[in-house]
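Here is a protein:
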Amino acid sequence: MAVKRDQRRRQIQSSSKPGLPVASAAKRKVSSCQKDDYSEVTKIPRYSGPYLPEDIWCQIHALLPLQDAARAGCVSHDFLNSWRCRPNLTLSEKTLGLKENAFGGARQARYFTKIVDGIMKKHSGIGVKTFTLQYCGSCIQASHLNNWLQIAVTPGLEELVLSLPPVPQAEYYNFPCPFLLNGRGDSIRNLNLTCCAFHPLAGLGCLRKLHLYQVHITGDELECLLSNSFVLEKLNLMHCNKIICLKILCLLKELNHLTVFECATLEVIENKAPNLSTVRIDGALIRLPFGDSLQVKDLEILCSSESNLVHYACAELPLIMPNLETLAISSVDEILNTPVLPAKFLHLKELEISLGVSEGPFSPAYDYFSLVYFLDACPGLETFILAVLQTRMKHRSISGNCSGLRLMPERHHASINNVKIIGFCSAKSMVELTCHILDSATSLVNLTLDTIYDGGYESTDRLAVHEIGHCSPIGKHMIMEADKALLAIDKYIVPKVPSRVNLNIKKPCSRCHAL
């Protein structure tokens, strides 16, 4: 027994550290075990995340919405550094989480200014690629706008959007054009200004898109900007009422898109851009001298107070812009019927005509059937869309039998394959136009007749596409007219539809348009 006790004592001593009593070694072992167990149960290790290069974290942070990016910067040193170099700054009431006019005019402006001021002062100004400032409330002090732009407009900036609320002309904010000098604006590709004065001192070498809305700029100042913006592709001018002569130089070889709308003082457009192919212009300006226009392929005549724009397009455009491929016309009034065209649109593929008034009937004397002459002048036309907006129908309704319908059997439209009439009504001339298309369009595949003008749903069943919500409101006069149009379709149109043609009849909504 004594021998066994000695062996046991030596085993215990060998398991302990030299120089420590057995009891101390055992106590240390128990204490260590207790500590490990406690750590596993209660200690939460700090997670630092995977190691990523700083530029990767910056890219991740840049993808966050503005509010989330700001919150991340408050809890992370890495994201705080990214916040100070955030490349995309979009500052608006929406991105800042402000309800529009939540505090009222001046107070809302002060609150908006305070938030934006805090953001811009914490930004280093380094690495900004896009800067957007949009505010719809009352006026913001020019000194604050200058400070923010001075921080944002740095070398490397690619997109600058400044949208200010409308104010009296004398109070327009004067955009600080010197900020664009000395290389600071050389990288800007997209410049979008609203409701300010802009007096450029030089061109922008990388500028590709220029959008000016309610901007005070003269024709000479705009020419100064354009003369050195050689890569400009898109120019939009809307409500710029200081321009008398718009000069588009031949040096703008990349310019392919031009929009000019409601520039009240404009008297002449001198276009020499060799590759300008798309033009959007309001009806009051389309009659102005334009310059070189043979290269224009896509033309949209925007709605204005001008009348007889369809008549003008037929009488003049085949000679001015003979190479059109798409043409869209909006007219509020047509007193004159569509004439026989002096020349043909040999290249026109798509034609869209929008006729309408916001109140009352559309020109009761206008003969829809006269549009046959327009179709006849487009031998390559493939798509024809006619939209008629009115709140009452005063045209002569069709009645009686088919023998009274006008015919033009000698005219054929071999290329038309898709026709859509929106706002189809029981007007005799509209029914005659539709029947003529069915008789003469030998390649017709699709014919859509929509008896309601409400923006146009693609589905035949309106109720199926807005299970939540409602259709656009339609007056009872046009709902009753839609019922008459359906009767006219059944009696005069359906019997003429060839088997190869897909007829799509769009009826009023059974829920929203019920009387």
In short: The radius of gyration is 35 Å. Residues 12-48 have pLDDT under 50 and may be disordered.
